[in-house]
């Protein structure tokens, strides 16, 4: 199958390649029940040597720069309580952690979660964290600009491989909250 975005050799419906995904991502694809059919979530093989954004888009297609999203894990603290959440923003922006995220979570302080926390709590590889398959109890904050795109490139749970996901599917993830202005222009 041809990928709807990017220059990939092959795009495979995620339900047909569960072995390529981490356990939590594969479980989420198996249990998928949104209005976007699971077979519209596509897996593409990528080479981790080309993970840097500039090299990645040069190799896989310049159209991906405006159609890629990052999923970052944030930790919010209020008193002795800690809250983990995910933020999904276009890769040309950065998550407004100290503004939109902090206010939405109702926490006093918010910051990016340490790498060992992010990977340990998600069961995914650093650099490949995806909003598909996160713990159901987590808020998944999604920038409205991500939902508006026909297809978005995100991590697959591993550094090798990516998912191509219809934008509107992000709003259907467990715990998803679509927020205007979550992604701020990168400085």
Structure description:
It is built from 5 helices and 11 strands. The protein is of the alpha+beta class. The chain has one domain (11-185): YbaK protein (Alpha-Beta Complex). The chain has a 5-stranded mixed sheet with strand order 6-3-4-7-10. A 4-stranded antiparallel sheet has the order 1-2-9-8, with no helix packed on it. A hairpin with a 2-residue loop joins β3 and β4. The longest helix has 9 residues, at 97-105. The radius of gyration is 15 Å and the shape is globular. The model has no long low-confidence stretch (mean pLDDT 93).
What is the structure about, briefly put?
This protein is an alpha+beta fold and 187 residues long. The chain has five helices and eleven strands. InterPro entries: YbaK/aa-tRNA-synt-asso_dom_sf (IPR036754), YbaK/aa-tRNA-synth-assoc-dom (IPR007214).
Strand order of the largest sheet: 6-3-4-7-10
Q: Helix tally?
A: 5
> Helicity, in percent?
10-25%
In CATH, the architecture is: Alpha-Beta Complex
Note the main sheet: 5 strands, mixed
**Class from secondary-structure proportions:** alpha+beta
Strand content: 25-35%
Principal-axes geometry comes out as globular
Domains, number: 1
Can you write the helix and strand succession as a string? EHEHEEEHEHEHEEEE
Mean pLDDT over the full residue set: 93
The CATH H-level superfamily is YbaK/aminoacyl-tRNA synthetase-associated domain
Rg, Å, rounded: 15 Å
How many strands?
11
Could you say what the CATH topology is called? YbaK protein
Unreliably modeled segments:
none
The CATH C-level name is Alpha Beta
Q: State the end-to-end distance.
A: 37 Å
């Amino acid at each position: 199958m041809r990928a709807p975005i990017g220059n990939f050799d092959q795009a495979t419906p995620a339900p047909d390649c569960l072995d390529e995904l981490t356990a939590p991502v594969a479980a989420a694809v198996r249990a998928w029940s949104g209005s976007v059919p699971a077979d519209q979530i596509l897996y593409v093989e990528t080479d981790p040597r080309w993970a840097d954004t500039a090299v990645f888009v040069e190799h896989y297609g310049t159209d991906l720069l405006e159609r890629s999203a990052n999923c970052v894990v944030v930790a919010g603290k209020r008193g002795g309580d800690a809250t983990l959440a995910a933020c999904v923003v276009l890769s040309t922006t950065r998550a407004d952690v100290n503004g939109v995220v902090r206010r939405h979570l109702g926490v006093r302080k918010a910051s990016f979660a340490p790498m060992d926390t992010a990977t340990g709590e998600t069961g995914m590889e650093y650099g490949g964290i995806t909003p598909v398959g996160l713990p159901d109890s987590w808020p998944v904050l999604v920038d409205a600009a991500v939902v508006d795109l026909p297809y978005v490139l995100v991590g697959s749970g591993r550094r090798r491989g990516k998912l191509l996901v219809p934008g509107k599917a992000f709003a259907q993830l467990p715990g998803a909250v679509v927020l205007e202005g979550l992604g701020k222009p990168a400085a």
